[in-house]
């Protein structure tokens, strides 16, 4: 027959299959045999047709590229509802990262194009999920296990609950060294006292409110583009003070414990937030006269009051790149508040809190020791340079200038950029175009 062209013990051909189907059909006593013939043929194919290893495929683990593609896939989807928004709803426009990183790329800095595109898409998605007033890509911090992408947000205080304001919880304080349980027994022996460290924990001061000082901006981080953005907690003066004393690598895990001496009061997310505050206070700069103080501020404010608000100068005239790269650094200014030694931008009297808490105890002690000891003098308020202070007043670091200047191209200076790189925080750069 034409339906059978060859024979094989491994393959079930149409003739063999038809023969087996008819043979099994004759054994079945059913009235609707023709209707069940197709089901019978299907069962024979399933149980009689042999399977070989070449027909099966190994179950492979999904590759990192596939997982990354699935993570980025939602970023490329548009929201039709956003196109139908009314004109009364404000639209937040964040900086053009493609143009910004194109300028950094001429200086040999920045991120790859694919990463910049993914960042732009995830920032677009971010502003659609949370109500904010401003958004900026702060930077990328490398860790031993994972990396951090950081967004700087101008938070809307009216829609947020002020958290982490006031004193930090007890679990974030640095506890003094425990006293020896056998101290009395050791005193009875004629032995030299054991050495004790001279280090004392810094004073635990009140943290600045959200929207002011070091907590003026909010910061969100994620380990991989496409992941959920996690908000970092507000920073406290104690965390700033201790972060100045230690050096630790980031692991990329926000909930990781900090192992350092002096002990850090918090987890890695608190240490990350403290380092971001320190880096921002030192390296957030702009050309001179690019920003100016708002002349329409409240006239009731004192002349010596701390000013942390400024606006962009509409009459700013760009300088040449050679003026911007002048070694004197007089044409660049800081537009972020200076961090005082106590870990705040606005000085707070440390005795104002302790006297309020121990008012009852102090009254009893005064009755007993009246006239014996005089009250100590009030601490001298700490002051720092005001906003928009030129970089020429920055202190040197072990004899090294805090900034290095260069031009991206001296062959075509008309299209070149002025680049400033921080020597105190390697990896922090500022770039500007001249006239």
TrEMBL record:
<keyword id="KW-0963">Cytoplasm</keyword>
<dbReference type="GO" id="GO:0060294">
    <property type="term" value="P:cilium movement involved in cell motility"/>
</dbReference>
<dbReference type="Pfam" id="PF04712">
    <property type="entry name" value="Radial_spoke"/>
</dbReference>
<feature type="region of interest" description="Disordered">
    <location>
        <begin position="349"/>
        <end position="401"/>
    </location>
</feature>
<dbReference type="InterPro" id="IPR006802">
    <property type="entry name" value="Radial_spoke"/>
</dbReference>
<dbReference type="GO" id="GO:0035082">
    <property type="term" value="P:axoneme assembly"/>
</dbReference>
<keyword id="KW-0206">Cytoskeleton</keyword>
<keyword id="KW-0966">Cell projection</keyword>
<protein>
    <recommendedName>
        <fullName>Radial spoke head protein 4 A</fullName>
    </recommendedName>
</protein>
<keyword id="KW-0969">Cilium</keyword>
<dbReference type="GO" id="GO:0001534">
    <property type="term" value="C:radial spoke"/>
</dbReference>
<feature type="compositionally biased region" description="Acidic residues">
    <location>
        <begin position="358"/>
        <end position="381"/>
    </location>
</feature>
């Amino acid at each position: 027959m034409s339906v059978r062209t060859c024979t094989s013990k491994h393959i079930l051909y149409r003739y063999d299959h038809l023969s087996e189907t008819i043979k099994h059909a004759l054994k079945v006593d059913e009235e609707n045999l023709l209707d069940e013939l197709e089901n019978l043929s299907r069962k024979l194919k399933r149980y009689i047709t042999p399977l070989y290893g070449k027909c099966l495929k190994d179950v492979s683990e999904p590759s990192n590229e596939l997982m990354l593609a699935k993570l980025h896939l939602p970023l490329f989807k548009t929201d039709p509802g956003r196109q139908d928004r009314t004109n009364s709803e404000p639209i937040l426009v964040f900086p053009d990262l493609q143009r910004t990183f194109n300028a950094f790329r001429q200086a040999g800095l920045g991120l790859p194009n694919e990463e910049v595109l993914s960042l732009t898409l995830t920032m677009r998605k971010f502003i659609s999920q949370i109500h904010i007033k401003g958004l900026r890509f702060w930077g990328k911090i490398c860790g031993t296990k994972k990396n951090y992408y950081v967004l700087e947000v101008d938070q809307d205080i009216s829609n947020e609950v002020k958290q982490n304001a006031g004193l930090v919880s007890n679990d974030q304080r640095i506890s003094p060294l425990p006293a020896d349980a056998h101290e009395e027994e050791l005193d009875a022996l004629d032995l030299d006292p054991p050495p004790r460290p001279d280090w004392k924990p810094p004073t635990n001061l009140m943290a600045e409110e959200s929207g002011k000082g070091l907590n003026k901006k909010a910061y969100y981080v994620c380990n991989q583009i496409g992941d959920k953005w996690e908000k970092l907690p507000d920073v406290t003066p104690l965390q700033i003070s201790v972060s100045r004393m230690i050096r630790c690598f980031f692991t990329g895990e926000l909930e990781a414990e900090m192992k350092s001496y002096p002990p850090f009061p918090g987890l890695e997310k608190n240490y990350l937030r403290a380092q971001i505050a320190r880096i921002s206070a030192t390296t957030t700069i702009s050309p001179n006269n690019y920003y100016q103080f708002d002349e329409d501020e409240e006239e009731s404010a004192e002349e010596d009051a701390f000013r942390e608000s400024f606006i962009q100068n509409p009459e700013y005239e760009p300088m040449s790149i050679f003026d911007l790269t002048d070694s004197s650094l007089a044409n660049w200014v800081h537009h972020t508040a200076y961090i005082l030694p106590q870990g705040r931008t606005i000085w707070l009297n440390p005795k104002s809190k302790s006297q309020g808490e121990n008012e009852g105890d102090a009254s009893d002690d005064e009755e007993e020791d009246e006239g014996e000891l005089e009250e100590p003098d009030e601490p001298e308020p700490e002051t720092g340079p005001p906003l928009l202070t030129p970089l020429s007043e920055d202190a040197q670091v072990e004899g090294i200038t805090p900034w290095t200047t260069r031009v991206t191209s001296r062959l075509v200076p008309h299209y070149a950029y002025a680049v400033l790189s921080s020597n105190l925080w390697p990896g922090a750069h500022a770039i500007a175009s001249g006239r």
